[in-house]
Amino acid sequence: MARLDGKIAIVTGGASGIGEGTVLRFVEEGARVVIADVQEEPGRELARRLGDVARFAPTDVTEEASVARAVDTAVEAFGRLDVMFNNAGIVGAVGRIAETDTGHWDRTVAILMRGVYLGMKHAARVMVPQASGAIISTSSTAGILGGLGPHCYTACKHAVIGLTKSVASELAQHGIRVNAISPGNTATAMTSAVMTGDHTAIDAATQHIAASSLLGIPGLPVDIANAAVYLASEEARYVTAQTLVVDAGQTAIGGNGRFHQQNAALLREAGVREKA
Question: Which of 11, 84, 232, 253 has the smallest number of Cβ neighbours within 10 A?
Answer without folding.
Answer: 253
